[in-house]
Amino acid sequence: MSNLNKVLLMGRLGADPELRYTTDGTAVASFRMATSETYKDKSGTKQERTEWHSIVAWRKLAEIAGEYLKKGRLVYIEGRIQSREYEGKDGVKRKVYEIVASDMKMLPTGQGQGQNQAYPQEKRESFGASKSHYEDDFVPEDDVPM
What we know:
The chain is mainly beta.
């Protein structure tokens, strides 16, 4: 049996995407996305648990994310999980897990968030934005990952 690394998420952005460019001019956008689930605990009280996901988009998909996505926006992401290691400013090596987006769809939201705003048809398709590994010349700006 073959392996599979596929992630499907639908949630809201915690902040506007950060759009940057590698030294060779390749666009890369990163943002945090929250997904929530509700459940009842042992006493029957409704509880909510929120997970935060670090999302990375490359090339055209990164540019689209930088232009159209805003904090609080409801979005659907398809991608894969990828880990990377980096050394923090304190010299400690860290490993982070991120979702590398391969497709993105903006979803209708409530009032004031683009409920009737059309999302251009050409922006709805996959753009092949991911690579199997990070660009060699991409260096995180901060010690703390997204």
